[in-house]
Design goal:
Layout: H1 9-25, H2 38-47, H3 53-66, H4 70-74, H5 78-84, H6 91-109, H7 117-120, H8 128-139, H9 149-157, H10 166-176, H11 182-195, H12 208-212
Helix pairs in contact: 1-11, 2-6, 2-8, 5-6, 9-11
C-alpha cells in the first residue's frame, strides 16, 4: 500500500498529541482474543467479525478443545461446525471461510500461515484488517493499521480521516503516524473506543482526547 503522500503538518502534530495521550492511557494495550497458536489466532480473528471479543473467547474455549489441529478443521463436518460457532453470528459464512482457510493454509502454505500481506489476502475470509492483526500478533510483521469499527469511528471523530472505507481510512492513518507506532496504536484506539468513545450517543466533550486536542 502506497502511503508516500504526506499529510499536512497540522495533522502530524495532531497525531503526535493523540499518540502521546493514548500511550499514557493504555500503555499495555494488546489483543484480547485468546489463542495458543497462529492457526487459532486466524480462527479467532475470523470469528470476531461482527462479534465481541468476549463472546469469541467463550466460543473458542470450547472450539479449540474440540478441534486441536489444522487437520481437525479440514475433516470437520460443515453443519456441525456451524453449530459449534453459532453464537458468534453469521455462522454459515464464517464456517465456510474458516474451513476453506484450513484447506488453503494446508495446501498452499504447507500448514503454516504466510508472512506477507499479499499471501494472507489469498486466504478465504481474510481482508486487510484481519491480515494486519494476524501478521502483527503471529510474526511481529507490521504492514498497516487494523481498522475495525472502533478505529474507524475514532479516526473520523478526531478529524484524522473523512473517509468511510476502512482501507482508505487506514491509508490516511498510515500517513499521519510513524510506522513504529502502527501496531500499538491499533489496540490503543480499540481500548479507547471501548472505554470512552462508544458507538451509542455520548458527550464527546468529556472524552480525554477531545480535551487534549483543544
Amino acid at each position: 500500500m502506497d502511503v508516500s503522500q504526506n499529510k499536512p503538518p497540522d495533522l502530524k502534530r495532531r497525531g503526535k498529541k493523540i499518540m502521546t495521550a493514548l500511550g499514557r492511557l493504555f500503555p499495555n494495550a494488546k489483543i484480547v482474543l485468546r489463542y495458543s497458536n497462529n492457526w487459532e489466532l486466524l480462527v479467532a480473528v475470523e470469528l470476531s467479525a461482527q462479534c465481541t471479543d468476549k463472546k469469541v473467547n467463550e466460543v473458542t474455549a470450547r472450539l479449540f478443545k474440540k478441534y486441536r489441529t489444522l487437520n481437525d478443521y479440514m475433516r470437520a463436518n460443515r453443519k456441525e461446525f456451524e453449530r459449534d460457532i453459532y453464537q458468534t453470528g453469521f455462522y454459515r459464512n464464517k464456517a465456510k471461510n474458516i474451513l476453506a482457510a484450513a484447506k488453503a493454509v494446508k495446501e498452499k502454505f504447507g500448514g503454516k500461515l504466510p508472512k506477507t500481506m499479499h499471501e494472507m489476502l489469498a486466504i478465504p475470509g481474510i481482508g486487510r484488517k484481519s491480515a494486519n492483526v494476524i501478521l502483527g500478533n503471529a510474526y511481529g510483521i507490521v504492514e498497516g493499521i487494523a481498522v475495525d469499527t472502533h478505529v474507524k469511528r475514532l479516526a473520523r471523530a478526531l478529524g484524522l480521516s473523512k473517509e468511510t472505507d476502512p482501507v482508505k481510512i487506514e491509508e490516511d492513518l498510515m500517513k499521519i503516524f510513524p510506522k513504529k507506532e502502527w501496531f500499538k496504536l491499533t489496540y490503543r484506539f480499540i481500548e479507547y473506543g471501548r472505554k470512552y468513545c462508544v458507538a451509542r450517543p455520548h458527550n464527546h466533550a468529556e472524552c480525554p482526547l477531545t480535551k487534549v486536542l483543544k
